[in-house]
Every structure is written in structure tokens, then in C-alpha cells.
Amino acid sequence: MICVSKAITAQCNYKQQLDQTSHVINNHSTNMSKGYVMKKIVLTGGGTAGHVTPNIALYNSLKEAGYEVHYIGSYNGIEKKLIEDMGIPYYGISSGKLRRYFDIKNFSDPFRVIKGFGEADRLIRKIKPDVVFSKGGFVTVPVVLAAKKNRIPAIIHESDMTPGLANKICIPAATKVCCNFRETYDLLPEGKAVLTGTPIRKELFEGDRKRAADFCNLDPNIPTILVVGGSSGSVIINKTVRESLNDILSKYQVIHLCGKNNLSESLDGIKGYVQFEYVSKELRDLFALSDLVISRAGANAICELLALKKPNILIPLSKAASRGDQILNAKSFKKNGYSYVLEEEELSKTSLINAIRDVMAHKNEYIKAMEESKMSDSVKTILELIKSVS
Q1: Are residues 159 and 68 in the same domain?
Q2: Which residue from 64, 95, 124, 160 could staple onto 325, CB 3.0 to 4.6 Å apart?
Q3: DSSP states of 31-93 as a string?
Q4: Residues 124-146: pLDDT tens digits?
């Protein structure tokens, strides 16, 4: 009975989405009758914030360019609230993860993908977009394949050095494939690959040092280190930074974004050290105050550091806990002179202190290398690409 109830609820929600789509499209038709001509774009991406924030970074530029924006994501993924909070029409579809390893869900998830394809196909035919832009995640597979079926050009974006499984499935159906790394460009089909970098949220460039200092109760004249371990935090980075505090605080202040449930009450009130589980709008100010950033090596995170020209130490997620994409990302940034890389297996109090000392001694060299990067205006590059195919 519970399964039947869920199925009925899902069907009702989906019908409401189609009704909502009709309402938006009717408004669009009214605008056209008044002399307005707007192209339509479907954005898709979900599962993690990294598959959503680049789409958000594109939104204002798309609106300014005259695009009517729609979003297709999963029923209840992280992308749903982020997109709905922006007032963008949002449509949830069924999605399933395709795994390279054994899992009992491997038997049911393909049916979710097939169901998602049917839902995406109906939405695409209803919305009639001029173009689809996909940032990745398994929810995008049905959307990109539905776009191909309906002869709608689809542009996909691969953030990491090597394409993930979802994007591997989507590449044959894509018109163009954006990427962050030259090494990735060489792996992609000839004629499809475009080296763009990752769209960066405009507000990140609008940070204020004094506002950050006031927010953190820190001195804006003392060099500051920002530690970012990802939205859920990193146990090993948190532990090592805290073990090293006495040495670090002798020269620097520390802003520590340690992740949910990772605050340490014993460190409250220490002069020059402030910790947060997570920040949102304040992040731009924290970046502005920071002279050095210690970070994981997720593609979107490191592209933000590159765009902001922030000297950084990257500590990639180990291969034992991932498919190794962060390690490859970090190696590429090290090769280009953008980052100091410290492997997780090598992380210790001593190695961290030495890394900080090295980067601060050569920070101008890191900044110069990042200034010479050709990926500083990714939003403009991708917008022009969207215009060229729509």
C-alpha cells in the first residue's frame, strides 16, 4: 500500500509539473504576442552542489541574454531547493545511479532511469527548449538523451580531468562538451570539445575584507588562512589543522570551515581562530580576507580558487575513498603552477606547516601563474557557446 501511495503521489506531482510547464509556456506565448522574442533553455544537473552551482552562475547572464530558463533535476535532490529558491521553474524526474560496482540497487535503478527518460521526453516536448545545458550527475542522463531524441542541441560540462560515468553516457548525444583541463580536451571527441573552465558565481568576486574581519572578529591586517574541507568537512584535514594551530597562529589567523557537526567547543575563544560548520553568502568575504586557502581538490572548488587568484594548498581526496578524480585535478593544477599539492597520505602537522611556509614564500609566483590562465571568463565563453547552437 505504501508503494502504491508513493506511486500515486509521484504521478500527481508530475502532472502538476506538466500543468506548471503549460502555465509558463502560455505566459511565454503572451509575451511573444506583445513583441518579445525569448529563446528557451533547459538547465540540468544534480546530486551534489558541484553539479548545481555552475548552472546558478550562468543564470543571470542567460536572463540578460534573453533566455527563458527552466530546470530539470531529481525529485528531492539538493538541486531542488537551490533552484526553487531562485524562482526558476523546476521539474523533478526519476533518476537512478549507474554503478561500476555491485549494489542491490543496480537491479532497480535502471528502471528509474528509463522512467526518468520518459518523464524528461515529455517535459522536453512540452517546454520546446532551443538548447539544453547539462552540468552532470546521473539525473542528467535521461534529459540529455531526451534532448537528442527531440533533436534539441545539448551542451554538457565535465568538471573533472576524466569524464564520470554519467557524462560518458551523455557524450555521444551531446553537441558540445565543455571541460576544465587541457588533458580532458584531448580525451574528448574531435569537434565536440571546448576548453571553457567552470562558470563561477559573480558574487564571489564581490567580497569585502573588512566585512569578513568584522564577521569573524579578526584583524584585517594579519595574514589569514581559509580552510575548506567540503560541505561535509574532512576528518583528517580538521584533525591536522587543529593539531597545528599553535604553530600556525604564531604568524597567521585561521578561518576554518569544518563541516556539519565538526565544530570543536574546546577551541572556542582562541585568539586568531574561528570555526564554522558552513557559510553561504559570507563565503565571498572570507575569500577576500584570505591570503592562502587550504582545500580539497573538487573541480568546482579549485576553479573558484583559480578565478579568484588565491594561493592554495590542495589536499585531494584519496583514491581509496574516490575514483581518483581529485588527485588528477590537483596534479594538473600543480603542473600549471597554480597549486601546492599535499597528498592525503602525506598529511601531517609537519608537512602542513612546511606547505604553508613554502606557499607563502612563493605566493606571488602562484598568483602570476593563475593570472596567465586563459580560463578566467568561463561564463562568457559558455554563454557564447550556448548562443551558437541555439
Answers
A1: yes
A2: 160
A3: HHHTT---EEEEEE--SSGGGTHHHHHHHHHHHHTTEEEEEEEESSSHHHHHHHTTT--EEEE
A4: 999 999 999 999 889 999 999 99
